[in-house]
Design brief:
alpha+beta, Malonyl-Coenzyme A Acyl Carrier Protein, domain 2, 3-stranded antiparallel sheet, elongated
């Protein structure tokens, strides 16, 4: 569509739609049993690598694609007109809950920590890369939200 070439945000909005559809139709999986973390020796806890849930995705865009998506979905021309394309980047967590797919806006450091963990980086390395006084609270939120299904140590499954 030649008329769509001027809409620089359109490819990222399509990526968001794709991520939402992928999360919606991802296979079910049991979230990580958090008691498994307590079974680890304290010295090994930093070496934990997490396996992301199949119904979780991260997305970054230079445009407020979440606001665009919500405005289009609700057919709200006023909301669409209020979208500031120059507001800066957004970092998104797309995940399935019992109530449907949620699209949550994250801070840059929250996204970096989640991205490192979802990529299989050891916990100690992910925490070192995202210094914040709130990192442990954010990690607890990711764990409690069921964003992971398993853990491993040094690329070995932990049973």
């Amino acid at each position: 569509m030649p008329q769509a070439t001027s809409l620089a945000y359109l490819p990222d909005t399509a990526r968001l739609e794709w991520a939402i559809d992928t999360v919606l139709h991802a296979p079910d999986a049991m979230p990580l049993d958090l008691a498994r973390l307590t079974q680890l020796e304290e010295a090994k806890r930093g070496e934990v690598c997490f396996t992301p849930h199949p119904a979780v995705r991260l997305l970054q865009s230079d445009f407020p694609i979440d606001a665009i998506w919500r405005a289009v979905l609700s057919r709200d021309d006023g909301a669409m007109g209020a979208v500031d394309l120059n507001a800066g980047p957004v970092w998104l967590l797309i995940h399935r809950t019992p109530f449907g797919v949620e699209v949550d806006r994250l801070s840059a450091w929250q996204w970096r920590l989640a991205a490192a963990l979802f990529a299989g980086r050891p916990l100690h390395a992910a925490l070192e890369e995202t210094p914040s006084s709130e990192t442990y609270a954010w990690l607890a939120t990711l764990l409690a939200s069921g964003c992971f299904t398993a853990i491993s140590l040094s690329d070995r499954p932990f049973d």
